[in-house]
Amino acid sequence: MAAGTAATLAQDVVTIRFAHAMPASHSYETWVTEFAEELERLAPGEFEIVSYPSAQLGTETEYLEGIRFGTIEGAVMGRHGQIDQRLEVLNLPMIYRDADHMDAVLRSAGPVQDELDSIMYENGFKVLGWGELGFRDITTNGVPIRSASDLRGINIRVPNVEPWLIAFREWGANPTPLDLSELYSALQQGVVDAQENPPEVVVTSRLNEVQDTLSLTEHASIPSEMVISTRVWESLDEDQQAAVMEAATISRDNQVSATREANEALLAELEEQGMAIVRDVDRESFREGAQASWAAFEDRIGADLIANVQAAGQD
Q1: Would you say residue 309 lies in a domain?
Q2: What does the entry list under GO cellular component (predicted)?
Q3: SS3 per residue for the chain
Q4: Domain, as residue range, for 157
């Protein structure tokens, strides 16, 4: 009987496997680890959280398929625009005024966040929390980017985010979408000349080994999301769902705070290591090209949603 009871209890443990493409040193891994710790505190013995960092389970696009088909339960990623084109609103360049604006859109439990969460849920993904990678800057070799016109003719890697492809073309660059796992070798081999990412990604992905100049363009910020499948979510009872969301909120807030602190501190570290940091950037020079991408996506996103995201936090 004891053996039978133990087997039954073991079967009742909910296993959630999270995939992410960042190295184990990145805040994504800390996010999953802290989520697991908080969940164990709130619901002891009820969940097993397993993390697969460093693209062990493939690319972020493959995580979407895995969650839909049930080969994994969850992921931390930034592929919401591939889930539903309305969510490209979160990727529009120059859409966010600052960090406080991002908080108002994604972490205020307000009507805009509710709408975004609902869109994700309709597509089979339960958002446990919207995280952050940070505002994105451009790295190059020996070419400072002080205005949008300095990008003319540069082959730059960007994520496969269509509004960005439009914006970078408007700025005169030649954008090439590549998965993050392919970026280091692409820069090393000269497949692309430049890339854009927050400082934390530059450091954790060792991109400063193959790029020597970082220009603080802060042209965009892709939020990340911790998600599980709606199938897993709906299998949980109310107490388990409450525990999951409490653990997710605590770990999300820690991830956002840690990311912001890390990005600030890592600029000084990169500079000490010899990377040139270009601070005198004319951010407004990027606005015209950015708004061309807004216009191109207005029909797919919806003018109202774009306006609501812009207005968040201004009440």
Answers
A1: no
A2: outer membrane-bounded periplasmic space
A3: CHHHHHHHHHHHCEEEEEECCCCCCCHHHHHHHHHHHHHHHHCCCCEEEEEECCCCCCCHHHHHHHHHHCCCCEEEECCHHHHCHHHHHHHCCCCCCCHHHHHHHHCCCCHHHHHHHHHHHHCCEEEEEEEECCCCEEEECCCCCCCHHHHCCCEEEECCCHHHHHHHHHCCCEEEECCHHHHHHHHHCCCCCEEEECHHHHHHCCHHHCCCEEECCCCCCCEEEEEEEHHHHHHCCHHHHHHHHHHHHHHHHHHHHHHHHHHHHHHHHHHHCCCEEECCCCHHHHHHHHHHHHHHHHHHHCHHHHHHHHHCCCC
A4: 137-220+269-300
Structure tokens at 144: 């400072």
**305 within a domain of the structure (yes/no):** no
pTM: 0.86
- Cα 39 to Cα 128: distance, rounded to the nearest angstrom: 12
Residues 51 and 198 in one domain: no
**Looking at the domain assignment, is residue 311 inside a domain?**
no
Give the C-alpha separation, 265 to 198, whole Å: 12
Q: Does 10 lie in the same domain as 142?
A: no
Nearest-CA neighbor of 38 among 254, 260, 306? 254
Do 229 and 215 share a domain, yes or no? Answer: no
